[in-house]
Amino acid sequence: MPTKLSVNLNAIAMLRNRRDLPWPDVASFGRIALQAGASGLTVHPRPDQRHIRFLDLPLLRALIDDEFPQAEFNMEGYPTEDFLLLCEENEPEQVTLVPDDPSQATSDHGWDFRKHGDFLKHVTSRLKSGGMRVSLFADGDADRSIMEMAAATGAARIELYTGPYGGCYDNPEAAERWIEKLGQTADFAKEFGLDVNAGHDLTVDNLPALVKRIPHLAEVSIGHGLTADALEYGMAETVRRFCRACGQAIS
User: Positive or negative CA dihedral for 117, 119, 121, 124?
Assistant: First the structure.
């Protein structure tokens, strides 16, 4: 099956939040993305609400339920009690747990599964009891033992942190090395029954090589690069371009 695209709306929300005005409208851009072929929408509601606001969540949930029931809602965040309650209130199909400090600009590393395995096991069990699939943020160069620990939490998926790969945009040799590291980690994850997502600094240019090396890649979550391209190509055409880069037959 081709890799699915989940459009991260954080950058759209951040642009909106620069002014006390209702545009750009996050739900409207989510609708455009889903109409153009995206398989889902991703948000990261941080405690300071610097991009996605808590009031956005029920609107996006309703958009998917009412107009795109085949699509998925993915909520990403550090599993504080407040975040878990937001998940339980808005019932995303997938929850991606990240080891972020609230002050971080963006997620930039995977979980330490040795240190936080028991904690993640408890949180994963709670979310699964609510019918939510759990994905855990993981470093792209994790070894086999790390993936075994990730699987022991009971999560269904990992999300490979692809930031270092995206940072090799001007260094083809380094990009090839990172492709192989990511591929090996994905292979280890598959060995232990984990499905694999990926995200961070993925572009139309670097996606095809990643998808080729990881043919079982289930989903990519993309926001910054996609939003930047939308300034040039428009949101709908940009989503179609990213879907094609994922290997989808989008006209």
Answer: negative
Instruction: Work out the number of other CB atoms within 10 angstroms of the CB of residue 62.
Output: 12
- pTM of the predicted protein model: 0.96
C-alpha distance from residue 229 to each of 37, 222, 233 (Å): 16, 11, 6
Quick one: CA dihedral 241, 199, 153, 93, positive or negative? negative
Task: Give the separation between CA 176 and CA 165, rounded to whole angstroms.
Answer: 9
Cα–Cα dist 231/129, whole Å: 40
Query: Residue 53 in contact with residue 13, Cβ under 8 Å?
Result: yes
Residue 241 phi/psi, 5-degree rounding, is -60, -45
Kindly report, residue by residue over 175-223, the tens digit of the pLDDT.
Answer: 999 999 999 999 999 999 999 999 999 999 999 999 999 999 999 999 9
Contacts of 223-227 with C-beta under 8 Å, sequence gap 24+, read 223/7, 223/8, 223/9, 223/10, 223/11, 223/42, 224/8, 224/11, 225/166, 225/201, 226/7, 226/8, 227/11, 227/12, 227/15
Taking only the tens place, the pLDDT of each residue in 43-60 is 999 999 999 999 999 999
- Residue 40: exposed, middle, or buried by beta-carbon count in 10 A (0-12, 13-18, 19+)? buried
What letter would DSSP give residue 201?
S
| Active-site residue list | 44, 76, 200
Question: E strands, 16-175, where?
Answer: 40-43, 72-77, 94-97, 133-139, 157-161
